[in-house]
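IDEAL domain-containing protein
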Amino acid sequence: MKEKSYGELMKIAAMKRNQKKDNFVQNLYIEILLSEIQLTSERERILQKIDAAIDNRDKKSFLQLTDQLKEINKRFGT
């Protein structure tokens, strides 16, 4: 079995580091995307409930839901 030279070992190590960086960035991107999807769907659900509260003239529910919407907007960064 042929042993690898120092240069080859350094190339392999560099490739492994790059692969780890790529995996980290990809996992971070996926996590951000999933978080955004979750917040968007939660926001849409609350907006629908707010519309229903307005239609039903339910002030108490409207105020509670708008507080929830404000909290989601904070988490969303808007």
